Amino acid sequence: MKHPSCRGLYAITDALLIPDDRLTEAVEQAILGGAWLIQYRDKSHDDARRLTQARALNELCQHHEVPLIINDDVELAAQVGAAGVHVGKDDSAFAIARARLGGNALIGVSCYDRLDLALEAVRAGADYVAFGAFFPSPTKPTEIRASVALLRKARAALNVPIVAIGGITPDNAPLLLDVGADALAVVSGVFGQPDIQAAARRYANLFA
Question: What is the pTM of this model?
């Protein structure tokens, strides 16, 4: 069943930050700290490894009743029964994902710094849209930058949840929440910290 909302801390895994043998433990710590959604993001080409990890994470997330979103791999999401998938700017990606995963899947679309992409995604039926990077990001230092003004315009124009991503810390996050972000997508701010649960809680407390 589709999760009723896309709000709160949206924690995204990174193979460079989390050793394979600690992935499930790290994600559980993020959930215990208050993450509302988990995204499994692994750009490697080791299909067997990715399938094993995604299955383990989906079992964990189902146990905690937290949606698992698979980054940019519709087939992997279908194989493990994940809650949904996050896709990029490819025009056909959303349609393919919806056709493969069905109407109950939670499907998000990256819209970078472009409101037009978001409007198009919403018309197509996207469940949420993501903008960013809003701040310099250690995960993607050359990422396209989005502005707070864009976020404010998007909030006025869109009726779906908006996810902000890119260099977000507990200190700069309130600025994004004040102008309309519903969820904060965080990678290193959670999984790059020595105490993952405490790091996650600092973000989650912003939504209390």
Answer: 0.95
